[in-house]
Design a protein that fits this description.
By secondary structure, this protein is of the alpha/beta class. It has 11 helices and 8 strands. Strands 2-1-3-4 form a 4-stranded parallel β-sheet, sandwiched between helices. The protein has a 4-stranded parallel β-sheet with strand order 6-5-7-8, with helices on both faces. Strand 7, helix 10 and strand 8 form a beta-alpha-beta unit. The protein binds the ligand C=CC1=C(C)c2cc3[nH]c(cc4nc(cc5[nH]c(cc1n2)c(C)c5CCC(=O)O)C(CCC(=O)O)=C4C)c(C)c3C=C and fe (ii) ion (2 copies). InterPro entries: Ferrochelatase, Ferrochelatase_AS, Ferrochelatase_C, Ferrochelatase_N.
């Protein structure tokens, strides 16, 4: 039999527990990445260690506690489920699926070395971010290169840069929405909330904002027969700088005064539910919307390990494996 191919699904990372020390360790690693916070290194380390970690980490304890699942942090639980489901899908093929996180555990280096030990000379790196951003996708590719610097005999790598417009990804999102509407009825408005980025990153050439709007345009087209207006917004603003707009919470808080009293919100840029979707959107934004007079707020979950999404992911992987498979 020929050598197996390694398929490595990689998401961002999440604290090992909701203890403050684990949250601090996670934030420190993540926010020390110069691809994530593009401020002069010494200035930023001073702010991070002196202000951000001491104040933000304790505040996040309660937030993580609210969403924590039996198996751990939702981001990890859903990523594990995606890995297992994709491995099952490829059970009859010479493909080994592993998961890893860019920050923390499961460790990316261990996952790459583990795949090599299992005989994988070829590894496909799959970022669990459909839209490309330097602060997510590029930093992952940087890290893979950095890990490989220590190797004399490096594996043969392929990377998936983005799948914001992949028909199978769009069809999975559309199916998720349609299924939700079939069971619960259509809303007045569907808001697609993507993770935000500093405006400066986009001004410097990050294609992320355009990628998000491309996904939204295709999803709008797929759902056009429902005549529901579909809008785009950006969530999870961090720090004082200007971020790409409009902000999700601002949009939701304006809706009631514009006559929009029932809204569905979906987060298509997150392949798995996590703190930013479950706490910030499903809990926090629902409360903010209702405080301004909104009547009905429904959160449509992420694709997580939905069977149609796992089929789509297999298709996206196969497309990139090309001549390898
Ligand atoms: C400058 C700061 C940040 C940038 C840029 C950023 C981009 C970015 N992040 C995600 C996906 C996720 N982010 C998550 C949490 C999170 N993000 C930031 C900051 C930036 N993100 C912080 C400080 C945090 C921690 C929580 C908080 O303090 O609000 C998560 C969830 C992790 C979890 O444990 O559940 C995800 C996923 C994307 C896709 C993105 C750029 C496109
Ligand atoms: Fe983030
Ligand atoms: Fe956040």
């Amino acid at each position: 039999m020929s050598q197996p191919i390694g398929v490595l699904l990689v998401n961002l990372g999440t604290p090992a527990s909701y203890q403050v020390a684990d949250i601090r360790r996670y934030l420190n690693e993540f926010l020390s990445d110069t691809r994530v916070v593009e401020l002069p290194k010494f200035l930023w380390q001073f702010i991070l260690k002196g202000v951000v970690l001491p104040f933000r980490a304790p505040k996040l304890v309660e937030k993580y506690k609210e969403i924590w699942m039996d198996g751990g942090s939702p981001l990890l639980v859903y990523t594990q489920a995606q890995g297992e489901a994709l491995a099952h899908k490829f059970a009859d093929e010479n493909i080994i699926v592993e998961i890893a996180m860019r920050y923390g555990e499961p460790d990316l280096e261990k996952a790459i070395l583990g795949l090599r030990e299992k005989g994988c000379e070829r590894i496909l790196v799959v970022p669990m971010y459909p839209q490309y951003a330097a602060s997510t996708t590029a930093t992952l590719f940087d890290r893979v290169a950095q890990i490989s610097k220590k190797m004399r005999d490096q594996p043969d790598y392929r990377f998936i840069k983005r799948y914001a417009e992949h028909p199978a990804y769009i069809a999975s999102l559309a199916h998720k929405v349609e299924e939700f509407w079939r069971l619960n009825g259509v809303p007045q408005r569907l808001l697609l909330s993507f993770h935000g980025l500093p405006q400066r990153s986009v001004d410097l050439g990050d294609p992320y904002y355009d990628d998000c709007h491309k996904t939204a345009a295709l999803l709008r087209e797929a759902l056009k027969t429902y005549n529901v207006e579909i809008e785009v917004s950006f969530q999870s603003q961090f720090g004082k700088a200007k971020w790409i707009s409009p902000a999700t919470q601002t949009v939701l808080e304006r809706y009631p005064s514009q006559g929009v009293h029932n809204v569905d919100v979906m987060c298509p840029g997150f392949a798995a539910d996590c703190l930013e979707t479950l706490e910030e959107i499903q809990l926090g934004c629902a409360e903010a919307f209702k405080a301004k007079g909104g009547k009905q707020f429904r959160y449509i979950p992420c694709l997580n390990a939905d069977p149609m999404w796992i089929d789509a992911l297999a298709q996206i992987v196969k497309d990139r494996l090309g001549s390898w498979s």
